[in-house]
Amino acid sequence: MAEPVLLPVEIWCQIFPYMDEASIRNSSAACRLFFEIVRGSEKYSGHVIFKQIDLSQLVIKIKSEEWTWQRWPCLKTLEIPIQLEYPAPTYTIGDALDPINLLKLEQCPSLDKISIFNCAFKLFYEDNIIARKLCFNPSNTTPNNVSYENVTYLEIIQFNDRNSNHLAQIGKLANQISRLSIHFESHI
Question: Do residues 40 and 59 share a domain?
Fold first, then answer.
């Protein structure tokens, strides 16, 4: 049987851009060389979105050392759901975000953005202003309360006159909002 021909890494780096996401994921499981190429590339491993595990499950994986940050040398952005199902609105953000402190983020110096989605945190103790997605820098401390500076998706349910003040604050402080949903109630 003939010896396999090993292509240089530079050639593989030219081949990977033609592969779809599933093929790249499968190839990184095929051999150590492909794993190192994929994980060492910011293009393929710089932005990770979890859809199958939530924040508490990631903490368990890190504690059991099933997940190690050393395998993600180019990770810049991590998006993770606070829980898999869509939660009911709540005021308690501190307890909900406590698991972030257990993620050992100091072991991933390249990480500069964490996005938490599937949230439902009420802002300003209003029942109708809800933060659905948060974003923060992991080198800073984990937020104990939600401010407009951390919100990237905000939902206002049943907009009313009291919310006009909040709209002014959103305009001044919310520099990360990429999605704003406002539901109006008709009084016909």
Answer: no
